[in-house]
From TrEMBL:
Record bears the keyword Lipid biosynthesis: no
Keyword annotations: Membrane, Transmembrane, Transmembrane helix
Transmembrane segment boundaries: 21-42, 48-71, 83-103, 123-145, 152-173, 185-205, 217-237, 243-266
Protein name listed in UniProt: Lysylphosphatidylglycerol synthetase-like protein (DUF2156 family)
């Protein structure tokens, strides 16, 4: 019996990153479950930012952003994952609005859903850090292009998109801060999951790569359609969620995270034995030389 093939460090990196992204969802769900034992089930997943689950929630989303950049690959999928990575930290550092009295100990100075002002300083720190680090990321990418470590054509779309988002965030934060605080989390969440629905669809119907096996094509298509439907529900239900008495937004957000988790599990299984591109290229070269 032949021994199992030995994986390279690059293969293990991609495997562990996919496991790590799926694990970040487990972290969020675990933190919410633990916190729910003391504060109960809130109206949305995002509401748990205002509880002791905050550190786990923020940390998991920032880790996801880093992993998405590392996993972005090439072509259209690279742009989609890079773009999603731009929005993940915003979901983390810009919290959702709250209904008065929905979370013990958090005061909301309005009659309807709005942003609790006591957290504005926290958001200011998070947004400023986001803008500085985002700008440094763009500059490092340009430096790598100048040093010929990467091709400008391969990252141009991601760079332009990232710069546009950074400018939009900076201008909105500076000139329309109240609107930013009221809508920032919602806009970033919708953008993130919309982009990821496109990622799932792209994996179901790749243009250049070999098509996935039928089971994975069905899974990716189902995830894309499911995320699209959940986004429609999220946008439609959010304005009326507080009047229903049922945590419909919590259920919708949890379902979206579940589909996000399912994608990375499916892709981890599908691509587990994908060869190291360097070894595959070397094997093709050797095969071409063999008479």
């Amino acid at each position: 019996m032949s021994p199992p093939p030995v994986s390279t460090s690059l293969e293990r990196t991609y495997r562990y990153l996919r496991i790590g992204v799926a694990g970040a969802v487990v972290v969020i769900f675990t933190a919410i479950g633990v916190t729910a034992a003391s504060v109960g089930w809130l109206t949305s997943v995002s509401d748990y930012y205002y509880t002791t689950a905050r550190d786990a929630f923020v940390g998991a989303l920032v880790a996801v952003a880093l992993a998405l950049v590392a996993l972005s690959g090439r072509g259209a999928e690279r742009f989609l994952l890079d773009a999603a990575a731009v929005f993940a930290p915003l979901i983390a550092v810009v919290p959702t609005t709250l209904v008065p009295g929905s979370i013990p100990g958090v005061e909301v100075a309005c009659d309807e859903r709005c942003f609790p002002r006591e957290f504005e300083a926290d958001v200011a720190t998070g947004v400023t850090t986001y803008l500085i680090v985002g700008t440094l990321t763009v500059l490092v990418a340009l430096l790598l292009v100048a040093l010929r470590q990467t091709a400008l054509a391969s990252i141009a779309a991601s760079l332009v998109f990232t710069a546009a988002v950074l400018v939009a965030v900076a201008l909105t934060w500076t000139l329309a801060r109240d609107h930013f605080l009221e809508q920032g989390h919602f806009a970033a969440t919708v953008a993130f999951f919309a982009l990821f629905a496109a990622v799932a669809l792209r994996n179901a119907f790749p243009r250049r790569e070999a098509p996935p096996r039928p089971v994975f094509r069905v899974l990716y298509t189902g995830i894309a359609v499911g995320l699209a439907l959940l986004l429609v529900l999220y946008v439609a239900l959010l304005p009326r969620a507080d009047a229903t008495g049922v945590p419909v937004v919590l259920i919708t957000e949890a379902a979206a995270l579940g589909l996000f988790f399912a994608f990375w599990v499916a892709q981890g299984i599908e691509k587990w034995r994908d060869p190291d591109p360097r070894l595959a290229a070397a094997a093709q070269t050797e095969h071409a030389r063999t008479p």
